[in-house]
């Protein structure tokens, strides 16, 4: 799919809304709604280095809004009026959009994507007691500052790193412990640096020796020197922590230089759980494992949404279904609050037990802004597809490790 550089216009959004069918997915109390409508800020980096992921996030949010509005909107309040913002892939860009959205009178903001953007946006929104639902941003500092307006639907990287390393140890043990040494490659913003710090602290306790940790900026257009370092030290495992473009380039450069470790094991890999990556670069993607956000493959609603996205010619990436779920979460809170008042909406989010999402989560429960029902899964690229390999209760395949030569 081409990486769209410009944000959707309101005209495009309205035109796409006209194509929505009668089918709907998990819509919370929204039939025959009456009211003036609710303004909702939809904020993503749809230009700049993170534009692909931002555009995917916007797609998921707008699909949810289309479904809600096609069924009449929020009961008693009316249809959702989306205000689409572009964070420009920078914290400053995100903060500027918060100011515009607050002035426009939005009831809440959904999105952000990147940890650095989410950190800035949550702080800016807190000045106006403006409810903010984080779609992806995994840095735990987003929800540990005591901001009453901030709610993260997905897991943070503390939970994800713990799960990822426990699963890695289990996979390695089951294979006879072939992997002992690791190199970490990470982008150097809040996301990658924070995750690398966690991995350095926790990998040794699981029996792995870290040979080197290599940071790089986003964007990075050449990984030849990084891969030469990997080739020289010959680690058993390479763990990338990158956004989509850099992840793809790193994997492709490793393939081109014929660097084949026993495994490429991602923690929140920006491309490792992406159908786009698998389709466009199947050889580079083969056998890569990832611990990341994912949809529930047993959930009919998740599969119906997947078909809807793919029928539009788009890829069903985690940005899509996480933002879809976040908008549905806000819609549920609005319906229960019976008001777009920010204080009432914040209280409704705090008490949420929303379970109409498409993720492999338990019911939503926020503690200090963090959804306790959220959890990652482990996937692996097998047979030109992405399969869930852990947890076992909804795994679609067994992990293949070490990677075949």
Architecture (CATH level 2) name of the largest domain:
3-Layer(aba) Sandwich
Looking at CATH, which topology of the largest domain would you report? Rossmann fold
Tally of helical runs = 13
Which spans of ≥5 residues are poorly predicted at pLDDT below 50?
Answer: 1-34
Fraction in helix: 25-40%
| CATH homologous superfamily classification of the largest domain | Response regulator
How many distinct folded domains?
A: 2
Shape summary: globular
Largest sheet: 7 strands, mixed
Strand content: 15-25%
Major sheet: arrangement of strands: 7-6-8-9-10-13-14
**Topology, number of strands:** 14
Q: What is the average per-residue confidence, as pLDDT, rounded to a whole number?
A: 92
Span between N and C termini?
A: 30 Å
Q: Which CATH C-level class of the largest domain is it?
A: Alpha Beta
SSE succession: HEHEHEHEEHEHEHEHEHHEHHHEEEE
- Radius of gyration, in angstroms, nearest whole number: 21 Å
Explained architecture:
It is a single chain. With 405 residues, the protein is an alpha/beta fold. The chain folds into two domains: 10-155 and 297-371, 3-Layer(aba) Sandwich (Rossmann fold), CATH 3.40.50; 158-292 and 377-394, Rossmann fold (3-Layer(aba) Sandwich), CATH 3.40.50.2300. It is built from 13 helices and 14 strands. The strands form three sheets. A seven-stranded mixed beta sheet has the order 7-6-8-9-10-13-14, with helices on both faces. Strands 2-1-3-4-5 form a five-stranded parallel beta sheet, sandwiched between helices. A two-stranded antiparallel ribbon has the order 11-12. The chain is globular.
